[in-house]
Amino acid sequence: MIMRTAGIHHVTAIVGNPQENVDFYAGVLGQRLVKKTVNFDDPGTYHLYFGNEGGEPGTIMTFFPWPGAHKGRIGSGQVGVTSFVVPAGTLEFWENRLSKFNVQFEKTARFGEDYLQFNDPHGLKLEIVARTEGKNSEWSFGGVEAENAIKGFGGATLLSAQPEKTAALLENVMGLDRIGEEGGYIRFSSAADLGNVIDVNTTVEAPGTMGTGTVHHIAWRASDYENHEQWKTHVAKSGYGVTDVIDRQYFNAIYFREEGNILFEIATDPPGFTRDESFEEMGKGLLLPPWLEPHRKQIEDNLLPAEARVLKEDE
Q: What domain of life is recorded for the organism (predicted)?
């Protein structure tokens, strides 16, 4: 059976101060803070999720904010650049918005598309590209109205220790289509219209080191729980060591490290972020899984405040 992922489910990164993180992704970029919870493996830190109005797969950027953590180095074995996609014709809006918040950016082009490249406050490399594909976000916040809002992921650029092996995995195991090669990048695409374009940098960079300003892992979509079990079997039969299924509350997850040393996750589309709070209340309060609820006071006492707020530049 040929397995084909629909594309990116989410991307998870390590950053610093949580309020700085929320101010940038909600306040500057206008995304919705759809879930405020903790790292289930390390409850002393937040796990923050940003996306479109419903936090749909293909839109979800997630963060572990560790104040005071050491700075990481972006390099091979990591996602090098995370791409967001905006509606066609809105790049000028985003140029003006980044300038308004003193975010330095560069204009670049790749595979016939124009990009705005910039860093977040903690050093993550980001870019914005405009495309007609993909439904528009319905979320407005601060100075970002829905008509200009980030739709979700445009894709990602992978920095592999073995680019050709990573490329073969994307094509032969994950089921992406190889589109072409240009300027030191191999481009792949999936069937989805968000989170669907993956570029593999063919230059091998020095190994990355984990820390603030780096991506921890990239997650791919499984349509449901049955499909997820099929992916687990498929990945194992393809020669990769894969974890057991882990319940992450808002999706089930399996993990494996590919030959280019990038950590891959495969996550289920269901059950989503309304599992434990209403659509209207998402992202406002700290949500804990049942096994951590008895420790709520201790957890809350150890966390710095973090909330989505309109920044003074937009008031």
A: Bacteria
